[in-house]
Design a protein that fits this description.
two-stranded parallel ribbon; about 30% strand
C-alpha cells in the first residue's frame, strides 16, 4: 500500500547520501524519548527541532543540543521560556 502516486506519505527524502530518513527526537536526561518525528533526509534539523521544542514546556530547564540547533529562532524560544541552552 502507498507505492502508487498519491498513496501514503512516507518520510523519505533525497539528500547528498541518496534517499534517506531522519529521526528527530527529544529525550529526557536519562535518554527516555519524550517526542519524536520522522522526516525526509533533506529536512534541516533546526526546523523540525524548533517545531518540536515550541510544543513543550521548557521553563527553567537546560536544553542540550548540537550546533545544528544554534539558531536565533531556537535561542529566542529558549530565552522566552527561561530555559538554558547548552549547545
Amino acid at each position: 500500500m502507498g507505492s502508487k502516486k498519491g498513496g501514503l506519505k512516507q518520510a523519505i527524502g533525497r539528500s547528498r547520501g541518496g534517499l534517506t530518513t531522519k529521526i528527530h527526537a527529544v529525550v529526557d536526561a536519562l535518554g527516555n524519548p519524550l517526542r519524536f518525528k520522522l522526516t525526509g533526509g533533506q529536512s534541516h534539523d533546526s526546523v523540525t527541532g524548533y517545531e518540536m521544542l515550541k510544543q513543550m514546556d521548557l521553563t527553567k530547564k537546560q536544553v542540550l543540543a548540537d550546533r545544528a540547533y544554534d539558531t536565533n529562532q531556537i535561542l529566542h524560544l529558549l530565552e522566552q521560556q527561561s530555559a538554558t541552552p547548552v549547545i
